[in-house]
# Entry
Amino acid sequence: MPYGLDKVFKTITANPYLRNTYLEIEPCEALKPYVHCFWLSRNDGGAENKTLIIPDLCMDIILYEYNGFNAKFCGINNYSYYCTENCTEHFGIRFYSWSAALFSDEKMDSALNTYDSVERYFSDFKGTLAEEILCAAEFSDKKLIAERYLMKKLGIGNINSSVLNSIFYLIQKNGNASVKDLADYNAVSKRSLERYFLSSTGVSPKQMLSLIRYQLLWQDAVKRNFSVHDSVFKFGYYDQSHLLREFKKYHGLNLTDARDSVFKMSHFYNTQPLM
# Structure
């Protein structure tokens, strides 16, 4: 994958410093350009646990045991929601939204906000693999099993180079660009670019630039020295009201409440201080 997108852009969750029930581990070097992380969520108390899921520009294979061993595919999402977990453990393979198509048997044009059987996109991901991963004792063992599967799948799909060029451009511009800018940058028509994006990521170029801008804004917002005023200019919002509306549209919470939630979690779980 060109440009090392994994090195210039790492998305974060609604509570990026939460460490008590949620863990992430990096993939092996060969998979780092394509897989954001492997993750494990545990609910040891057995009670229902509500987690805020925000648009993180990723797609996940999610494994869990509930009346059998289950595997689901979660596509890119463009709104936030609360996930209620009533299982003791979830294991996830988190792809970047622009790299999942490299492993998938199907195009991603219907992947927006989808939560479907994993076999729709990964036809050879059988229940036996879900069982093998979930029954492995250690997180590291689960990761190794998943990596063996992904290494065999790598390159089966396709990603258009204009999509990757556009995403790199958007990251460098802090999401402050237009679809025309992207089309001109790639020397393609806006209609062609839209087709490439839908096939590779499940969203249009316009949706992608808005999601990248939101994620970059959120990454700044979890720092102590964050300034709304400075961010208006940095990310190309019309004014402060526009920024706050767009943030709440994607995050589900207003900016103040979202930041307060992160700071409280960071303090309670004694994680590294926010910068």
